[in-house]
Amino acid sequence: MKFSEEIKRRRTFGIVSHPDAGKTTLTEKLLLFGGAIHIAGAVKNNKIKKGATSDFMEIERQRGISVATSVMGFEYEGYKINILDTPGHQDFQEDTFRTLTAVDSVIIVIDAAKGVEPQTEKLMNVCRMRKTPVIVFINKMDRPAQDTFSLLDEIEDQLKIKVRPLSWPINNGPDFKGVYNLYNHSLKLFDPSIQDIEEKVEFKDISSSELENYIGDDAETLREELELVEGVYPEFESKPYLEGELAPVFFGSALYNFGVQELLHTFVEIAPTPQPVQTDERIVKPEEEKLSGFIFKIHANIDPNHRSRIAFLKVCSGTFERNKTYKHVRLGKTLRISSPTTFMASQKEIVDFAYPGDIVGLPDTGNFIIGDTLTEGENIHFKGLPSFSPELFRYIENADPMKSKQLGKGVDQLMDEGVAQLFTSQFNGRKIIGTVGQLQFEVIQFRLEHEYGAKCRFEPIQMYKACWIQSDNHASLEEFKKRKYQKMAKDKRGRDVFMADSQFILQMAQDEFKDISFHFTSEY
Ligand code: G4P
Predict the structure, then answer these.
(1) Are 30 and 132 in the same domain?
(2) What is the CATH number of the domain that holds 441?
(3) Ligand 1: centre distance to CA 167 (Å)
């Protein structure tokens, strides 16, 4: 197959949702369609169980499984589909944000009864920031749901994106009869007793009185609602969708595998092929001959005896070839990768060639950090996602004086992996770990001990946010740093960060230093 055709047939995307909306169930059903798995339940255990916050065995088990399910590649109707898994647990949302840098589009799953939930909003904010095309799948229609029009209004309001339904539900809950597909004008009837992926009854002509035979009194309501839909919502157009301004919406029930095939079928048709990617220097186009790519995720400790890691490379241009020499731009050295892996059907296997859109697993002994660029020699740097201010902060202290070197190395490597963020106080040199959730502190402590033989202790610290500061007024910036020197820290890349104790303190600082801007993200 020609290089350009390989690019055209690739669809690399992520499925995101608020926990419990049905991401895992939908992923599994998509994999069933692709023949990537054969039984339901195969993806199910890729989840940290609710309330398992200090169950380390669970975390370890989870990390083992999630390597296999980090990327799920499969073939469907001539398309090569790569689903990038994102952790559902909100304590790991930075991981999810980073994975979103490697996708070309996103499917957001929403629970039809609960509507837009906090995590959905946060994830959508990241998609909006990156102008990522989004499809919405409204799930659990087999259960009592909110009114369809209000749900769509809520999505428009809270997710700040225009919507266009491409399917329409006929009732919900126990009365759920099916969906009408507005994209190819067919009706699909819901029958909870048929849960496999066989075809169901289809109905083409909506104006025919035969419709009543299938859905009874709901027929008239459906006709009315569809008329309203056509009146209220704009025609589906590819351009605003691809620009991240319009989200096509589908309805279904992932559990009953209902509406999933329509979703997949339309998805492969409308979702973007691998897209050009911005670097600090220039835009890289997928069809460029030379390879370029970036590391968006690192998985450590695959084998605890060998401190092995896998760095996940997103191929952005050119063909990745096994045993070819590539340049590691940050280190300025060349690397030859003899056993890169690909992830097909949730199995890891050695890959000889990979194309734009594909994810390649590179065995790593500590050469890579998140954001690293690989090229055939050119010095370019892919723009990553900025760091977000953590929510929780603790001092990290050495609890075993004999092991301070191990602790230093462990903390460094865990931060490179993106487990949490490290700040160093400019006042007293103490190290501060910032996380999104409590679970991350526990993971750090556990992994330092088991992988690096180091012991650490966390001490409380009163802190509200880490603010990256910026100003064109150099004198003012210097004055601020002098005045607030007790609260100034450096992030891992040596940038100045103001560690605000409280919202009030931050407000005071903002009022006093009007020409300084305070950012909750590291790039602005
Ligand atoms: P997540 O990955 O987004 O966190 O959600 P997940 O797929 O694990 O689904 C959360 C719960 O919702 C699961 O039930 C799942 O079976 C159920 N679910 C998913 N899709 C549908 C749907 O379309 N209809 C209905 N009625 N339920 C759905 P659970 O009881 O928490 O887990 P399990 O015991 O079934 O595994």
Answers:
(1) yes
(2) 3.30.70.3280
(3) 22
Task: From 43, 176, 255, give the residue whose CB has the most ligand 1 atoms within 8 Å, as the site to mutate.
Answer: 255
Long-range pairs, 428-433, Cβ under 8 A, ≥24: 430/395, 431/395, 431/396, 432/393, 432/394, 432/395, 432/396, 432/461, 432/463, 432/489, 432/499, 433/393, 433/394, 433/395, 433/396, 433/458
Residue 43 has pLDDT above 80, yes or no: no
Distance 147 CA to ligand 1 centre (A): 21
Distance CA 36, CA 514 (A): 56
Specify the pTM: 0.84
346 plus 398 within the same structural domain: no
pLDDT digits (tens, 9 = 90+) for 334-352: 999 998 988 765 566 888 9
Residue 238 falls inside a structural domain: yes
Q: Which of 374, 416, 418 is nearest to 279 (CA)?
A: 374
pLDDT of residue 55 exceeding 80: no
Is residue 385 included in any domain, yes or no? no
In this structure, the residue with its CA closest to atom 19 of ligand 1 is: 22
94 and 213 part of one domain:
yes
pLDDT for res 343: 72
Cα 20 to ligand 1 centre (Å): 6
Rounded average pLDDT over 459-486:
93
Ligand 1 atom, smallest distance to 88 CA: 4
pLDDT, position 107 = 96
The count of domains in the chain is 3
**Last residue of one domain, picked from the residues 214, 249, 270:** 270
Within 6 Å (CB) of ligand 1, which residues are found? 17, 19-25, 44, 88, 139-140, 142-143, 253-255
Position 370 confidence tier, pLDDT thresholds 50, 70, 90: confident
Instruction: Tell me the two tokens of residue 392.
Output: 């929780």
- Measured from the Cα of 19, ligand 1's closest atom is 4
For 513-523, what is each residue's pLDDT tens digit?
Answer: 999 999 887 76
Q: Which residue puts its alpha carbon closest to atom 26 of ligand 1?
A: 140
Domain that holds residue 24: 3-270
CA distance 479 to 473: 10
